[in-house]
Amino acid sequence: MPDKLHRHFQWIGVGVYLLSLIIVSVWLRPYALKPLWMAWGIGTVCFFFLTTWFFHKQWRHDDVKKFTRKVFLTALGIRMVYVGAIIFYYYYQTGVAMEYGAADSMRYHQWAIALAKLAREGEFGIIFRWLNANTIGFSDQGYVLYLTSLYTCFDNNILGPRLLKALMSAYMCVAIYKLASRSLGEKTGRLAAVIAVFLPQFIHYTGTYLKETELIFLATLALERMDYLVRSKRYTFWNIVFLLLLTVLTFGFRTIVGMILLFCFFLFVLFGDASTISKKAKIITLCVIAGIVVGLCFTPIGREMYFMARVNVKTANAMTVIWEQEGLKYTEYADGKYMVPGLFTLPLTSMVEVANENQKMMNGTYFVKNYLAFFALWCIVVAFREKKWRNFSLIGSYAIVYALCIVFSFAFNSERYHLPVMPCLLIMAAFAMTHFRKKDFAWFYTYNGLLVVAIVAWNCIKLAGRGLFF
């Protein structure tokens, strides 16, 4: 990474956040964030920007073994400390050791307690009948069964699953390094790994009771194994079975992720050059993937995909109606065709009190994604400029396809639904940073200016939609 970008990324990132926060807080003073939420935002942004570039500079010349050990142990230490601290914080704030408005988390927790009791009594048939009657499909069942297994073996303990989340998230940073360095070079891999260690999104969700950490762990490992299988050309029984197992498990956490993984593996093999995969191996692999996808369409997974597609469209329309009934304006613009330009950037950070507690607490976390989005987008330019677009046939296709699925759904403004794409986005961002040129700075400065305007405008729109902005 150019030294100039190293300095600018660090200080402009903090500066753009503080400038946006000051403008919003002064201009929209009656609705400015409370000191608690400002402290969370400023602390998050400073932590990410200052630690990332300090440790990247310290670690970038270490040998591979030493580097991966530092990445894993540092990530694990940060996440374990956060898990312990956030449990006390949430308990003090809400009375329970779970995030604000923890409806989904409480449901998972209560279901797992009840099912673990049945499991200890050997009533496994009742467990699966109950799941089929009370969930909408595999996407709802995987995480519940995972928690049930933990509760059955280790009692109804909420600390254990979170410590496992910390372990998964820490190893995921190593997987990101392997994936990025193998496909895009050592410099990109090291920068991507360091960003992953300190990325607020990854750290925050280890302290929640939601399924996002497990989902992105499985998806990232599946992508890494796909890349390894094709580039190493080691088509052994274990490599193939382990890859299939990881992909199948993702269906139990979010069905669409499993289907996207299969589709992107198809594209990866299709666009791979002859040096990566031979023509014969390409034909065989494509036929196998196509057969698996077609076979899935005639299973309960296929029926669930069809059902979820219909629910997704109806829910998106229903959300617009609900917003209109609540008196919110501009709901007609809450549509995919208007959201596509912000594919990697959304959702924008909320800096006014009308947001819910989680959004206010995570205003700095949202900003980090908004800021990194420039480099993820610029990566597309660099990939074609450097004639390395084929190297992104797996990482890039997964990022774009998943982001499009979210944009054209009811979840486009829910930050946690964007999380599975973050490993690929930060790899793309790292590639753009390590291939940055002097003439690219004009675009970098322009984006930052537009980002300030967009954040201020977004917070004005949030108030105007509620009739509070005059």
What structural keywords apply?
single chain; 470 residues; mainly alpha; 21 helices
Textual characterization of the structure:
This protein has 470 residues and is mostly helical. It has one domain (3-98, 158-464). It has helices spanning 3-27, 35-59, 64-94, 103-120, 124-134, 138-154, 159-184, 186-198, 200-206, 212-232, 237-251, 255-271, 279-297, 300-325, 336-339, 357-361, 363-385, 395-407, 415-418, 422-434, 441-464. The longest helix is centred in the N-terminal third of the chain and has 31 residues, at 64-94.
* Radius of gyration, whole Å: 22 Å
Tell me the strand percentage band.
under 5%
Mean pLDDT: 87
Q: What is the distance, rounded to the nearest whole angstrom, between the alpha carbons of the first and last residues?
A: 45 Å
What is the helix content? over 70%
Order of helices and strands: HHHHHHHHHHHHHHHHHHHHH
Main β-sheet description: none
Give the overall shape, derived from the CA principal axes: globular
Number of strands: 0
Count up the domains: 1
Unreliable spans are 316-327
The number of distinct helices, counting runs of at least 4 residues, comes to 21
Quickly give the structural class: mainly alpha
Brief account:
This protein has 21 helices and no strands. By secondary structure, the protein is mostly helical. It is globular, with a radius of gyration of 22 Å.
Give the helices and strands, then pairings.
Elements: H1 3-27, H2 35-59, H3 64-94, H4 103-120, H5 124-134, H6 138-154, H7 159-184, H8 186-198, H9 200-206, H10 212-232, H11 237-251, H12 255-271, H13 279-297, H14 300-325, H15 336-339, H16 357-361, H17 363-385, H18 395-407, H19 415-418, H20 422-434, H21 441-464
